[in-house]
Write a structure and sequence with these properties.
It contains 8 helices and 14 strands. The chain is an alpha+beta fold. It folds into 3 domains: 209 residues, no CATH class; 81 residues, Signal transduction histidine kinase, dimerisation/phosphotransfer (DHp) domain (Helix Hairpins, Orthogonal Bundle); 137 residues, Heat Shock Protein 90, CATH 3.30.565.
């Protein structure tokens, strides 16, 4: 059960059904209350009409015994005097509640109250009927039948009998019947409607989530096969699921490229490490057999090269792991002069420009750019530092042959050497520019290659100025 309701499909169906159920209950309650109010209002209007009809007769001095409203079979009527005595009531009235008195038998009238000849012939005098009407609910038994009624009370002021109050009722059977019918329809219809809503929601959500299941199953297959070249199916829609599939495929592509880059990096690193290690081992073996043939300078050179390569690989590994640079303030002009010291043919033209980052890593970038320029320059390497808006721009230009436009991005790839004929000793391992660009990106900047004014290569490092 918990697994069933743990699915999005089941939760969506249950949520939609509950929302519709609450809405139906609220709407049904409002309909029942409105229906009951309207029907009670109609019954009250009918009762008021009956009460005012009797009041009109009393105002016209009609004797109690000749009141036309007292012979109704389904409308109980009571007439009370100003002392609250029952002076007239409907025929066959056996019991009544909800009015000013529960009496059903009229009390004896005083002389002249019910006299047919009490009128002196002047028909112009009449009583005054009050405009206000009060209402109440109760029940009455007439000729053995008991029902609920809506009662209306109207006062009338007469000249001969004083102030009288007429209570007249209208049956509420129609209201009760209509409310019961509506309630029965709701009790039968609401569950059926909820079942339809639940079934439709289940089918619609199942159809909508079918691509998600396809994505899930394909991801499970990719995980099991470890084949990152596979892609999840993308629906031909423009909804959130289609965007999820596209994002998933983009993630898989990035992951595939990252894994491939890591594999190539490991293979290239192994190849680069194998050469100095093999050379060093050969020299040591020769020295062990023939001490006089030991090439000490070559062994030291191979050891240093191996040390530099290991440091480069360690730095790349830290950068790939997402190591955040330090938060120190570094003056690029001072750093440029420091790195240029002791290098032949290097000139520096720098204005103060402070950036935030790791002084050691930024110094490594500048050293790599100067090493690269020194290998390709004919006579000199020029270092410039300037400010451009919110950026600090460090340029390293040489007067060599430059870099072809088609190779200006490829040179930043790891273990890439453009000159295939160049020896490893002269050209290095092909990691310097790759490390320089990775450090620049980690510091929120860029590193690009272009053409120097003298025709050689120009490398520009752009970093945001310190705030």
């Amino acid at each position: 059960m918990s697994r069933l309701f743990g699915s999005v499909r089941a939760r969506a169906t249950l949520g939609a059904t509950l929302v519709v159920a609450v809405a139906l209950v609220a709407a049904g309650t409002a309909v029942l209350l409105s229906l009951r109010s309207n029907l009670i209002g109609e019954a009250g209007t009918q009762a008021e009409r009956s009460a005012r009809a009797v009041a009109s007769e009393l105002a016209a001095r009609t004797p109690y015994g000749k009141l036309s409203g007292l012979d109704g079979d389904d409308s109980p009527v009571q007439v009370l005097d100003e002392d609250g005595r029952l002076v007239a009531a409907s025929e066959d009235l056996e019991r009544i509640t909800g009015t000013a008195t529960t009496e059903v038998e009229p009390q004896p009238s005083t002389p002249g109250d019910d006299d047919d000849d009490g009128d002196d012939g002047d028909s112009d005098d009449s009583g005054e009927i009050a405009h206000e009407t009060t209402f109440g609910n109760g029940s009455a038994t007439i000729d053995g039948d008991t029902e609920d009624y809506r009662f209306a009370a109207v006062e009338v002021e007469t000249d001969d009998r004083g102030r009288l109050t007429v209570h007249a009722g209208a049956p509420l059977a129609a209201e009760h019947g209509a409310v019961r019918t509506a309630l029965t329809v709701m009790l039968i219809g609401f569950p059926l409607l909820l079942a339809v809503v639940g079934a439709v929601t289940w089918l619609v959500t199942g159809r909508a989530l079918r691509p998600v299941e396809g994505i899930r199953s394909e991801m499970a297959a990719i995980t099991a096969s470890e084949d990152l070249a596979r892609r999840v199916p993308e629906p031909a829609t423009h909804d959130e699921i289609a965007r999820l599939a596209r994002t998933t495929n983009e993630t898989l592509a990035a992951l595939e490229a990252s894994v491939e880059r890591q594999r190539r990096f490991v293979a290239d690193a192994s190849h680069e490490l194998r050469s100095p290690i093999a050379s060093l081992r050969t020299q040591l073996e020769v020295a062990a057999a023939h001490p006089g043939l030991l090439d000490l300078d070559g062994a030291v050179e191979d050891t240093v090269r191996l040390q530099h390569l290991a440091a480069d690989l360690l730095l790349l590994a830290r950068l790939d792991a997402g190591e955040r640079p330090a938060d120190a303030r570094v003056d690029l002009s001072a750093l440029a002069r420091e790195e240029a010291t002791g290098r032949t043919g290097v000139t520096v033209d720098a204005e103060p420009a402070e950036v935030t980052g790791s002084r050691g890593q930024l110094g490594r970038v500048l050293a790599n750019l100067l090493d690269n320029g020194g290998r390709h320059a004919r006579e000199r390497v020029a270092v410039t530092v300037r400010r451009e808006g919110a950026w600090a721009v460090l340029g390293v230009a040489d007067d060599g042959d430059g870099v072809a436009e088609a190779d200006r991005e490829r040179i930043f790839e790891r273990f890439v050497r453009l000159d295939a004929a160049r020896s490893r000793d002269d050209g290095g391992a092909g990691l310097g520019l790759a490390i320089a660009r990775d450090v620049a990106v980690r510091h929120g900047g860029t590193l690009t290659a272009g053409t120097a004014p003298a025709g050689g290569a120009l490398f520009e490092l752009r970093l945001p100025l310190a705030g």
